[in-house]
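Quick start: read one record
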Amino acid sequence: MPPIKARSLALWDSVSSSYWFIPSLMSVGAVVLSGVLIQVDGRVGPDWMEGLSLYGNKPDGARAVLSTIAGSMIGVAGVTFSITIASVVYASGQYGPRLLTNFMSDRGNQVTLGTFIATFLYCLLVLRTIRSPDEGAGPDLAEAFVPHIAVLTGLGLAIASIAVFIFFIHHVPESIHVSNLVAGVGRDLRRKIDTLFPARIGQDEPTREAARDEAAVTEVPDGFYDHARRIDADGDGYLTGVDAEGLMALAVEHDLVIRIRHRPGDFVATGDTLVLAWPPDRSGGHVMEDVRRAFAWGRQRTARQDVRFLVNELVEIAARALSPGINDPFTAISCLDWLSAALKDLAGRDFPSAERYGDDGRLRVVAFPTSFEDFAAGVYGQLRPYLAADRNAALHTFVTMGEVAGRLSSESARAALRRQADALLQGCLAAQTLEADQAEIRERHRVVVRVLTDPAAREATAAETDWIGGTA
């Protein structure tokens, strides 16, 4: 079976995160509920109310109640939608348009809108079944009918809608508060790191049995890049997902070695090479189509398999906060705290190897992995021009670097962080003119370098300075 998991998941993410999906489901539920309760009312009749000492509505009274609820709900739904659009416009203009997706997929907003629309639709459908004795034209319609259970349920939905509206009034300002917004993206980033790292496609290394098999392909074959078949993309957009398991299954089934050329988050145009497949004589025809189906792309980046997208969201908020027009270094510091928490998490993880082996121990897939160096460049490299121009943000950045440095065990990761620290130092010295600020920046850079050079000296360094533990 061809791999369609990536495109199916991409479609599901697009639908489930849309603003119409939850309200549509709730509206369908309202239609079903109204039909069921009307049938129940028709079978039970109004006599049950006398045993409970309840007063039954007359047809005119039931119509008035349901009409009032329906009219109120559609009016409140319009107000809710207007408030949501206003908050989205404010947030996207203040913090960045990439965050528009976060508000559109907010479950609180979706459930609120769905509650009002579902209540309106429910009351409308129940309302049409109420009739008075003089409204009938035949023997079947000569008797009055008031669905008492359905009317009481409508009143209950109205009360629930009021509670949801109160929640919404609290939820909107809370959701656009910058601290909550940054924390939400930061928590999503940490959860996505837990999900994707380490990513497993097959085995990390060939099995012992395969190592004894001299015919086993355990490394990229000679002439791979010159003679491998290039399988091109058949669409344009940002790569949103890769069905790694499907590619592995294809490679094993057709005895191929597949080299992935792009990773989620990259922009792919029609004709760009998605993968290289070797040997070329076993990767033509329907195999090429199956390989293409393992990749999904869309008009915008998503966070499903693209951790860098969440990093860029926090970087964008921090960059806007440090712009001269806003000049809010404390928001940038909050973003740096969450980004450093992600880097600390990544510092203790084993990044997967690019070469992935099947159960038979043979090399099957050469992936395009993301390394700690990529994340460090994505955080400190992209923010460097803005951090260097702001003293407070720059000093706090060295704090986060010192904390991350103490958790690194890889020499390549330490070297990458050292390059970022040195580059930030140069930018700060060029941007900051006061000698006192330059001296403080040099001191904090010195401590970061000391921790990078000898992580065992972290505790001694912390005793000398009170900021390495996070109190700048």
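Confidence is low (pLDDT under 50) at residues 199-203, 208-215.
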